[in-house]
Amino acid sequence: MAGSVCWLIYTERRCTMTETRAPGTSGVSRAVRGDLVNVRLAVLALAIGAIQLFVIPLALLPRDTAWGWILVPLALTTTPFWSLIHESIHGSLLRDRPRNDRIGRMLAVVYGSPFAMLKVGHLLHHRYSRVRERSEIYDPATTSRWRAAPPFYLTLFGGLYLLEVIALLFAAMPERTIRALGRWADAPDSVDGLVLERVARPVVLGKFRTDAAAIVVLHTAAFLAYGAHGWMLLTAIGARALIISLSDNAYHYGTDLESPRAAMNLRLPRTLERFALSFNLHDVHHRHPGLRWYELRTRFDAEGSHYHLGWFSAVARQLRGPIEL
After folding, report:
1. Which of 3, 32, 42, 105 is the most exposed place for a label (fewest CB within 10 A)?
2. What is the DSSP letter of 129?
3. Does the pTM exceed 0.85?
């Protein structure tokens, strides 16, 4: 775990130095260097996934069940793991788009939700954030805070990731059924209907079904490998669900409505910022979604940007619950 953090710091510095200290280096050379760094990070992420799913139950637990504690630090790699998928969603992981998407799909299979669904949902997030997508807002004219609170807190404490996993069920449905569900779910304060409508498109649905099958096979094999210790893997996945769900809307909670670019830069110690692949610089990302993760800090400094809150404060602030429209 410590070695992974150090390696992330080293690679981020190397990319930043290439961007800022080598004016004679062509943009193509910088992009190639960024590709190499991202490939290494993706390989590291997939190796961590393999350790969690198969190495621990097949090679370590038979020796001593205390090896199961390794799952704790591995669960803490959830944020950089998602950050790599996020880079692939934006086409920033690799310049070659087919390779970019293939690696993104592999990472998403280990993550537990099809890349096609994650990509559609996230790009709609950039388009409709604080417009149709504003999960903490409720309208007192149509509901009460007490009715809005349970689904909000369920989503906050793991429900968001659970919904991404439950989406696997759509893979078994006919295209027309998915479209019908999309029309039923369509609402002015939600992007769920739009997500289903786009996933039902033939070119997307085929990839969605292939990846869903891969996820079921991979994770079924992993649970069989754990056997009686399956509760360890389930706990690790639960930790992933909690981390993903708690952090997802922290960057947008309470920000201006009707403003898709509204997001916050959240302060983290520089080491943790590099470990998270600069995901905390979320305002910069929403204003410049084409930048790679290691370019966000450079742009943050160049624009004289500021932090809106600390990362931990922003996450804790969500415990206040739903906000009245």
Report:
1. 3
2. B
3. yes
Task: Tell me how crowded residue 225 is: count the other CB atoms within 10 A of its CB.
Answer: 17
Number of domains in the chain: 1
- Residue 149 in any domain: the answer is no
Show the tokens assigned to 209: 């079904």
The string over 278-291, giving b where at least 16 C-beta atoms fall within 10 Å of a residue's C-beta and e elsewhere, is: bbbbbbbbbeeeeb
Q: 36 lies in which domain range?
A: 2-131+230-324
Q: In which residue are the tokens 């309208």 written?
A: 139
Strands (E), 40-180: 137-138
Q: What letter would DSSP give residue 8?
A: H
How many whole angstroms separate alpha carbon 72 and alpha carbon 54? 15
In a domain, 241, yes or no: yes
Residue whose tokens read 């905390």: 280
d(CA 316, CA 272): 18
Rounded-to-integer distance, Cα 282 and Cα 307, Å: 10
* Helix axes 115-128 and 192-199, enclosed angle (nearest 10): 140
Residue pLDDT, tens place only, 277-296: 999 999 999 999 999 999 99
- The neighbour count for residue 320, using CB atoms within 10 Å, is 10
By C-alpha distance, which of 38, 37, 30 is closest to 84? 38
Q: Is residue 246 one of the residues assigned to a domain? A: yes
Count of other CB atoms within 10 angstroms of residue 313: 12
Per-residue pLDDT tens for 98-138? Answer: 999 999 999 999 999 999 999 999 999 999 888 888 888 88
**Does residue 16 form part of some domain?**
yes
Closest to 171 measured CA to CA, from 203, 202, 201, 213: 213
The amino acid at 312: F
For the chain, the helix, strand and coil percentages under 3-state DSSP, each to the nearest 5: 70, 5, 25
